[in-house]
């Protein structure tokens, strides 16, 4: 048994393994939104197909799930059905709001006719709301508590499990 | 159906690999010929099962069968057939499956080419490779199962990452790199076999060198193609950024390069046996570390597939392989006695030693810089990044020293060099050094490091050419053969020596081109309206207009530029902006217009339809295409070095004939 080889080998590799093991569970690509923990930027947007504008301020008192999406975005299509279901089952406690980003009225209406529509879809003309929320791409979802504070943000398509997790966080924040 | 069949194939491969691993060890210990036969059969079976599982997945991908989890994850009705086919290696689970196929292929090939090799270490070697196979097959069967059934099958999927759909290089870069990574299992297995059997004879050295060189070739191509892909696709104007994953591929390349050199000393002088085997084991372990870095989501990189749960499994395997290797080395390294002493301070042997020292120093430096952010995060909880300045500061002097060594080493004689020979070696490449440095000065280089690098490169290029052509030259002068015939007969007698000089030439071209392109590059960032122009390096570009084309999976917006020099238009360049329907942001495709002196590189940052203004980054990248050419030459050299020469193959055949029968019959088992 060559003790020198053993010592040098272990001296290099054991710390390396420990360091690599400590790196688990941290997502290196994650950049936290500076908006989390702050007042949600106000907006007032017209629903698709016309009607009276809806303002964020008018929704205070109820937690809000604010989902930015578009018809041309495939990940948005994958989460659409699940969000409709969730809005149906949680609608009494939580207000779901969709904001459609960079899209056309006719396309949105056609999309909603085919895939169902269970909550307001607001049209973000010129992307002002998206800019205010620092939307980086669609879909992105913000969780806003009854006092209008952003509790969390999720990028990418939601699954039912992920949504439930965030909704729980939202209810606890009350 | 496909799901069940795929799972069955993978489970069978777990069984085959496990049986083969035990069979190999048993055959090594007992010397039993039937155990050996079964081990070989299991190796072929393992390869067959892995290839069949991959073919099955290809079928699911091309037929867009979204009831298979991996096909649902990366497939899309909207992608062309070739994208569907290559998406096998576009994401985590599929790439591991593909990995399994290459592993199987390598094991089967090593087994096949050494089916009559009598070395007592070979059954151990195949057994070791099959043990690695057990891990990968297990990974595919469990944590990274690509054959999970999906019910109900979704009507459509998101398709592979658009960055990977953007360029044809994506078809070849990953397979080459995988072959370079996975193939290291072959030298690893052979080295472990040598340690277990306690011998490092000629019949083991030959396959060891062959497979190390083959895999080195793949790794070289894989790394360079990766740089080329990044250059052609990512649009930031560079080809290397010391990204953790790039580093991960460089690390085993460095140790493999060191091992190729020290292996020569083992062959010629019978020295440095333990050290060489250590380098080979380290090379394999670094490929596993590199795989872990790409696949675990611990590192931040273009390559990382985040949210992966195979990380812990991989780390466990890495830890086991490390501990096994260290234990084996410390237990058996004493068996590898040197046949001679290393004497003389100024021989070619010493140059090889310095080469090894420099390469290992570079390896440790890069490794440290790569894991340092993790160390800081573990200790202080904050994330930092180690950027290019650290790596450049450390790597540039080492790289220049290695370049110089590529000149001085081959000029030195074997054995002991006298003062006169040493002096001759030291001045032999001076003309080349002066020419290269002068060319640099004339072309406006005032960077001291670049001039030193150019001089070292020129020195080495001259010595390399002299050494490579010396035998043919002597033959031509002495025998009056015409120069081409002289070269041909030199090649037929020993292409190995020639091959290694061709590799050196390729690597030198790469080193010089990297030095020039990284120090002399120019860039400018501009916003242009139609008809406006900008300048980069010696060239001008004028914005002509935009046009858009709709394709199945994306909308391509083309931005047209005219390239000119001194007012004379000589080409049009069309960088693009691609809007993938399945993607959140647009992806640019830069346009690279290559000239021998350098590339004009245009990358569109933004296109504003309303105002008609484009945002553009333009680069002048000197000598970049020489890097790709140099890699081609290096690979050609590797193939030349692997080509069996008439004399050598005849000698080996005779040797094998006389040695084979008694060795197998005696079944000399070591430990």
Describe this structure in words.
The complex is a heterodimer of chains A (174) and B (671). Chain A has 5 helices and 7 strands. By secondary structure, chain A is α/β, with parallel strands linked by helices. A 7-stranded mixed β-sheet of chain A has the order 2-1-5-4-3-6-7. Helices cover 65% and strands 11% of the residues of chain B. Chain B has 22 helices and 10 strands. Chain B is globular and about 80 Å long. The two termini of chain B are 47 Å apart. The C terminus of chain B is likely disordered. At the A-B interface, helix 1 and helix 2 of A face helix 12, helix 13 and helix 14 of B.
Annotation keywords:
heterodimer, A: 174 residues, 7-stranded mixed beta sheet, 39% helix, B: 671 residues, alpha+beta, 4-stranded antiparallel beta sheet, 65% helix, disordered C terminus
Topology:
The complex is a heterodimer of chains A (174) and B (671).
Chain A: H1 3-22, E1 44-47, E2 54-55, E3 64-69, H2 74-90, E4 95-101, H3 105-115, E5 121-124, H4 128-132, E6 140-144, E7 150-155, H5 160-173
Chain B: H1 2-30, H2 33-62, H3 69-74, H4 81-86, H5 92-113, H6 122-141, H7 162-165, H8 169-182, H9 185-197, H10 202-233, H11 244-269, H12 273-296, H13 311-332, H14 348-380, H15 388-411, H16 419-428, H17 430-442, H18 448-479, H19 483-493, H20 495-520, E1 522-528, E2 533-536, E3 539-550, E4 554-565, E5 568-573, E6 576-580, E7 587-589, E8 591-595, E9 598-608, E10 613-622, H21 624-642, H22 646-666
Antiparallel strand pairs in B: 1-10, 2-3, 3-4, 4-5, 4-6, 6-7, 8-9, 9-10
What is shown here, in short?
Chain A contains five helices and seven strands, in the order H-E-E-E-H-E-H-E-H-E-E-H. Chain A has helices at 3-22, 74-90, 105-115, 128-132, 160-173; strands at 44-47, 54-55, 64-69, 95-101, 121-124, 140-144, 150-155. A seven-stranded mixed sheet of chain A has the order 2-1-5-4-3-6-7.
